[in-house]
Amino acid sequence: MPLLHLRKMMYTTVIAALCLGATTQAGIVPRQAASGSGPYPASYSTDTGLAGQTIFMPNAIPADVKLPVIIWGVGGCSDSGTNTAEFHQELASHGFLVIVNNGPTARTQTVAASLTTAADWAGKVAGSGKYANVDKSRIAVGGWSCGGLQAYAVASDPRWVTIGIFSSGQLDATQSVPVVGKITKPIFYFLGGSGDPAQAPGTRDYGNLPKTTPAWIGTNNKGHAHAGTTGTFTAPSIKTAAVHWAQWLLRGNTTAATYFTSNAEATQAGWTGISSQNLDKIIVTPI
Ligand SMILES: *[C@@H]1O[C@H](CO)[C@@H](O)[C@H](O)[C@H]1NC(C)=O
């Protein structure tokens, strides 16, 4: 698909121009200092059954706690699997298995099909060994920038419970409707403020979703990727928003839902431009 490739190239260029996502790379094996603020301290590992991807999960999990799955496309479609490690550890520490579609230190070009491969793998290992608690019926897909476009590319996979678009959107306006016009699963847009090159494209995509699709959009420049200064999702505002998204959509936590349905907390955390549709149609059995 040359057009998709072109759009990836454009985001890659944009990211390179902003020097985002490149600060913690250089082939250095990252330390696993942060373990997340949730109840289950988490770290990352790899699995020979899932080559070229990085797996974040709780170090220990009570037998009765299920682990839904979050599958993530890396920024630039080439960042390492640990470039945004703190963000993924935070999610995992709240009881999720997070699969990131590049190796811990790899800077190789990723493909959208790796998100599908990750879901296949999770489906296969769920229920046994160290993955005994994994719940393969609750899988989210998402990604940052170019990785968000990869999530779009596989959006029709019926296994997704929800889609998370983080600082991403179709740069080519003529491709917005073709790409998002048939998305039916609840989709959440987390954009990075007016300095984020994905701000306008992501907002346009949101507007082109089917009117019946549950969706939420907000934008925040506090250290969010593509804006601010860090670009690796370490700001509390983005970590907290993503955790609430996962707690609601994948664990059925209705307390977490209020972050999006009342917006008081989100607004206090600096989210602006908030809009939503059909959130009342999101019904998740709590686990
Ligand atoms: C539900 O979400 C809220 C808000 O994030 C959190 O404080 C609470 O611990 C969660 N409950 C469970 C059972 O995970």
UniProtKB/TrEMBL annotation:
Keywords: Signal. It comes from the Eukaryota. SUPFAM superfamilies: alpha/beta-Hydrolases. Residues 1-26 form the signal peptide. InterPro entries: AB_hydrolase_fold. Gene3D superfamilies: alpha/beta hydrolase. This is Alpha/beta-hydrolase. It comes from Schizothecium vesticola.
